[in-house]
Amino acid sequence: MNMQVNENVVIVKNKAFLAKAEAFRKPLLHRDIAAKSIVEVVADEQAIHGWKVRDVAPISELGRVLLGQGDSVILDFGEHVVGFPSLALVPVGSPPDAPLYLKFTFGEMPVEVAEPFTNYDGWLSKSWLQEEYYHIDILPRDLTLTRRYSFRYLKIDVIDSSPKYKVALQHVKIKTVSSADRAMLKVAPDTSDFFQALDRVSVKTLADCMQDVFEDGPKRDRRLWLGDLYLQAQTNYETFDNRDLVKRCLYLFAGLTDADGRVAANLFIEPEPIPDDTYLVDYALYFATTLHDYYEATRDLETLTELWPVALNQIRFAQQLLDANYLAVEQPYWWAFVDWNEALTKQASVQGLLIFTLKQAISLAEILDSDEKSWLSDLLEKVTFAAKKYLWDPSQKLFVSGPEKQIAWHSQIWMVMAGVLPDEEARDLLRRTAEYSPEIGLTTPFAYHFLVAAWLKVGDKEAAKQVLVGYWGDMLHQGADTFWELFKPDDLSFSPYGSHLINSYCHAWSCTPAYFIRKYHL
Amino acid sequence: MNMQVNENVVIVKNKAFLAKAEAFRKPLLHRDIAAKSIVEVVADEQAIHGWKVRDVAPISELGRVLLGQGDSVILDFGEHVVGFPSLALVPVGSPPDAPLYLKFTFGEMPVEVAEPFTNYDGWLSKSWLQEEYYHIDILPRDLTLTRRYSFRYLKIDVIDSSPKYKVALQHVKIKTVSSADRAMLKVAPDTSDFFQALDRVSVKTLADCMQDVFEDGPKRDRRLWLGDLYLQAQTNYETFDNRDLVKRCLYLFAGLTDADGRVAANLFIEPEPIPDDTYLVDYALYFATTLHDYYEATRDLETLTELWPVALNQIRFAQQLLDANYLAVEQPYWWAFVDWNEALTKQASVQGLLIFTLKQAISLAEILDSDEKSWLSDLLEKVTFAAKKYLWDPSQKLFVSGPEKQIAWHSQIWMVMAGVLPDEEARDLLRRTAEYSPEIGLTTPFAYHFLVAAWLKVGDKEAAKQVLVGYWGDMLHQGADTFWELFKPDDLSFSPYGSHLINSYCHAWSCTPAYFIRKYHL
């Protein structure tokens, strides 16, 4: 990934927008969840990453486990949790004559408490690996960890106590944090047990990512990304329906554009909202699509009116990346995300997304009775024409992308989403692509989301369900409590970051089965 | 060292004594001390432990040092400090897109910031090694470390930031803690520059060990040990003269005896005063000698009267270890400290210390007009007779110890301290011993203290000064800011704990040059 450090980015703060975002910030909700059992992690070739968890004893036995130098214990909370862990540390033996030195390791997945982080050699910061060292000078001690962690498994290593005493652990629990109000959760869909299970894990994934903002993942990046927000918001309307949180996020992005009016791909929230110096054209367009969906869900005309100019600026940003033929131009830097796939040429996907966005924008222009409708319509006509003329390969009957005329799954999906072809032809295109099985395939739940959306757009519910069953259902079979950031069924250790230890296993962009199941009655 | 875990020890809490100890607890005093320079540690065969410190830049340059993954910096505070460090962490570059992961390593000596603690293989707990890991989620950050550290050198390692940002450090300082009031420090002695330097380092050592109690060492064990207290109190009367702190410590020991009235060798202070389950007869006797000195310094008859029964109980404890001939009997467990020397047979030393203590106790009995004087005098006569009859080797003209009739420096010193021989013969004994140079020699400043005291007792100031110059002066030459727990001039890496990394380099029992220089006008 070609990270850009744009030190010269000028940020335009819209204080009124930021004040509105702040006004919609609500106190987080809490639950106390106790650790459920004492477990061990054992090697198992059949299990994902080669590790599975086995119960050793019920948590009621924990107080009897005495830990001295070099001892460790792994606890299973029984579900994925996000929050602030606490525990009581009780010395046993002589009075503690040396500090207690502990290491905490948090795992969303068994592998994280099975393989030492010292083996990590990925290119994302080691600081994301959830481990913590604590010296405890005075015992007994009620210890509440000061950072937020995202995990199901907690490993506690006693690096050292002393020959004269050991330590027992009691009351290991977590105070969870979330802005998802379970009391507001809409009733579960009347569907198969399997789809209900998919729905439950989706809802859990979303809830654990709903914090002060819609985070992409509570383990990593703990940040407000527009791509994630777009999908989270869709799922949110069908589940917790926390409209204020969507509104807050839209105002945050709108309040922190650059001098050209572009919204950042993501925002940092603390110590104050700060836009990352990364500008991705697809993520910028998702501002407009998220605003569109927000209005559809809420009919909040005031917000639509206020944020409409910001949405238009994102279309202008995309417009600037078009060539004289109104074709999106592949850029030599990290200009669009689309998917984690270094081989992917993103031209056709962005072209399709622009068309998709323009159609939504035009519908909003009509609602607003906006003068902008005419240039939007004009632009839509031109980019649609360009897509058909330059990106359609009539011999292969597939869309191509970039100077090498690459055939990628993504390009077909986005042209379907764009409605460039009539529905029946579009359905044929998807089927043809599935048969063709392009070498450039989908690697993330984010990309798979749009595949499901595309099947539904062309009216093929069965195909959509097959993707849910085959892809998300596979994660479920592998033991997912929450849906993962990355999942390649043919490469279970896939990570775009060089190590699956750093992957996020509760990731917002993977939460959309609940959206599909509920909205389309699957 | 044969640590005893006596789980069946019954503690008798004297609440009135403990309440008095609590009443004399005073808020600690603080100073803000900034880091003084940026340094590096370089290998040097001539330097102690093979490492010396070299200035790299003044501290004013620190803000320009940008630290990213794998970078580190070492700061020199210019003096030994004890307290709570703080610093400001300022990100430089793009907005921090990953937590900052830092490691802090604190060194009283260069070796502690030069050699990785992972090499440590001593038998004391690793938890004493002063290192700390911190994840910083939000930057910039004013960070105050929550534990107390004892150090001169601070190494800060950036384990990771991210490729998009680095970090600068600002305002690195420490809020020191001590119960030594510098405003109360008695005027420095009128003596040579060299003895003034010895005095300064002694006073600094004492001050950094004066906390909520007289600690043995602020790095390790951070605890109230009776052997250290005895020497600290002596030095304290000549310097800060914090009488309340001595009184507090005496009442703490007296308030927490066992069922036989024995005081513990040391106390833990937090979360509440707790006696360690270690009972050493010499340390118990130091309760009586410390009470004796306290009365001499303060004429506080009320305290003497109250604690007198406790002092007597320590003599009874020693009495129980005598055989039918009134000779101290070597025990098969850790029964007396005397010195860190596994080969040392402690019988003669304890016999000498008992005589020494009995003489002080009889003088106190006279002040109190106590009925106990008669049995004390009777006992004194018997143990003195036994010492002369069974421990004096007339052919070698040296005292011997234990069944193997070991000749140790300690035995001669303690018999001199006991006044078993007339002063002139005692002086000859010390000179003879120096010439004989026993294989069983002194290994700690604690033991060397009594050598100096013995020379002074027999009136040989020059010999006493030679020990100060040759032993403590040698530490000074090696760069000591504060005097060390362990120092063997012929084995600079000596540690009774298996690694010099864990030694304490600011240790109470080493602070007595100031006592000798001031009290005896050396």
UniProtKB/TrEMBL annotation, chains A, B:
A single GO BP term for this record reads: carbohydrate metabolic process
List the Pfam families hit by this protein, alphabetically: Bac_rhamnosid6H (PF17389), Glyco_hydro_78_N (PF21104)
**Which keywords accompany this UniProt record?**
Hydrolase
Superkingdom of origin: Bacteria
The parts of the chain that form a coiled coil are none
Q: Where is the Glycosyl hydrolase family 78 alpha-rhamnosidase N-terminal domain?
A: 36-175
Hydrolase among the record's keywords? Answer: yes
Leader sequence range is none
Record SUPFAM superfamilies: Six-hairpin glycosidases
Gene3D superfamilies, alphabetically? 1.50.10.10
Q: Which Gene Ontology molecular function entries are recorded, alphabetically?
A: hydrolase activity
Residues forming the Alpha-L-rhamnosidase six-hairpin glycosidase domain are 193-518
Return the InterPro entries for the record: 6-hairpin_glycosidase_sf, 6hp_glycosidase-like_sf, Bac_rhamnosid6H, Glyco_hydro_78_N
Q: What is this protein called?
A: Sugar hydrolase
